[in-house]
Design goal:
By secondary structure, the chain is mainly α. The protein contains ten helices and three strands, in the order E-H-H-H-H-E-E-H-H-H-H-H-H. The longest helix is centred in the first third of the chain and has 21 residues. InterPro entries: PBP/GOBP, PBP_GOBP_sf.
Amino acid sequence: MLLFQIFGCLLPFVVGLRTQRSSGTLVDFTDPKVQGHLDALVRMAQSCVIKVRATPKDVRAYFTNSSPVSRSGQCFAACMLEQSDVINHGKVNRELLVHLASLVNGKNSRVVRKLNTVSRLCLDSIEGMSDRCQLASTYNDCLNENMIEFAFPLDIAEEAVRKMPFHLIQPNLPQEIRSSPY
């Protein structure tokens, strides 16, 4: 789930650009500022796809707030969080995560208030972990599970997956498989 780099932070996007499933939208996805952040997130994800050789399943899991199904999926989450500096040398910078989310959502927004609390709780889920991919994936999963009401709209998640350069790492992969949800 969560996560992003506006300026290099994926977590805030994943957290920051969520919408409520029931009533109303927390973020105006037509706002040029929000669109700019989404574009930055997609560029970061494209880089991570190449770096960790992520599959369409890996990226779809990340953008739909599902747990990774493979090691490359875990490492994709790590790449996204590390590029945003939310995780640096195995340490979570919770304050940066909250700050980045506040840039998109506002300092006193419901998203930021909840993220401030949840991000602290999720630190317990990674206590003692040393594997960078597992640590990032576990932290991201905890955020996703506890902030489910702010999940990315599915159409935006699918559009992000369609923009990934899977052909660069799997040149013979047919288009229908690259964009298949499974």
